[in-house]
Amino acid sequence: MMSIRRLDSFEQGRTFGANAGRVRRQIAMTVTGRFDPARYAAACPGVEVLVLSARACEGFRQGTGRWYLNDDHVFAFRRDGRARYWPWRTVTPLAVAEWLGCPPPSVQTVRTVEKINVTEPDWESMFDDWRQALAWLVQVAWVERIPAGQKEATPLAAWRIDPSCARPPQAAGLKAVADTLMDILTGHEAVRRPHPLGRDGKPVIGQWGNPVMRFDVSRRAPGPRLHGTYDPDGVFVLLDVSLHDDLLD
Q1: Rounded Cα distance, 99 and 94, in Å
Q2: Max intra-chain CA distance, the chain
Q3: What is the pLDDT of residues 131-147, one digit of tens each?
Q4: 67-71, 156-160, 163-167, 176-180: segment of lowest average pLDDT
Q5: Cis peptide before 222 (omega within 30 of 0)
Q6: Which whole-number Å values give the CA distances from 1 to 9, 98, 128, 137, 148, in the listed order?
Q7: Percent of residues, the chain, with pLDDT higher than 90
């Protein structure tokens, strides 16, 4: 049975954005977009397909704090919290179904099967220096998550890694750290719950006189935290990614 639901109000979009993928697998597209919701619902049994109006898309953006939905992209959300979007003409309903883990359709119901390889490259293994890998992954996160029509208006701010910064612990993962940096560098840091690093009841001040801020790398608590500050030129400086509080001077 197909599951297609239309969202028309700002509040509906905001609520969906805040909870996307947390309860069930979901697909999102716009009412005026290029995608046929019936085809995606048929290819993805058990997945809820949501069709958003322009007003609902505004609410969706506020609810997620990070995702931008427009006519040329389709989004999918897994129950493990992972999300992905595809541009028009680069994806088929079957590719989305495969990424969501839907069972393959029977031969009787599908005449032509087009398979697109959506396996993510192992970026970390392509660099000897983890700093180079992280810098590249930040660029990859920006390319993947900011739609083409909004890239000019949403550039990456300047940033750098402090020489004292050690490689993030394995529990954090460079890809998750890169996603966090991308949110910070594009002005969407609110989703990472920024707050000053404290010690003895007082905020820790970095070497340039600005507070050292903490950002959630994972939405689940407890989890890794990214620490950073700003230098006199307004450049964000990555200081540390750790699982503990009492690290920075």
Answers
A1: 9
A2: 68
A3: 999 999 999 999 988 88
A4: 67-71
A5: yes
A6: 25, 18, 50, 39, 34
A7: 56
Whether 140 and 65 have beta carbons less than 8 Å apart is answered as no
- Residue 243: which of 210, 205, 216, 207 has the closest Cα? 216
pLDDT tens digits along 39-63? 999 999 989 999 999 999 999 999 9
Mean pLDDT of all residues belonging to the chain: 86
Buried b (16+ CB within 10 A) or exposed e, 132-164: ebbbbbbebbbeebbbeeeeeeeebeebeeeee
- How far apart CA 134 and CA 75 sit, in angstroms, is 25
Query: Could you tell me the pTM of the whole model?
Result: 0.52
DSSP one-letter string for 76-105 = EE-TTS-EEEEETTS--HHHHHHHHTPPPP
For the residues of the chain, what is the DSSP string, one character each?
A: ---EEEE-SHHHHHHHHHHTTTSS-EEEEETTSS--HHHHHHHSTT-EEEEE-HHHHHHHHHHHSS----TTEEEEE-TTS-EEEEETTS--HHHHHHHHTPPPPPTTT-S-------PPP-GGGG-SSHHHHHHHHHHHHHHHHS-GGGTTTSPPPPEEE-TTPPPPPTTT-HHHHHHHHHHHHTT-GGGG--EE-EETTEE-B-TTSSBPEEEESSSSSS--EEEEEE-TTS-EEEEEEES-STT--
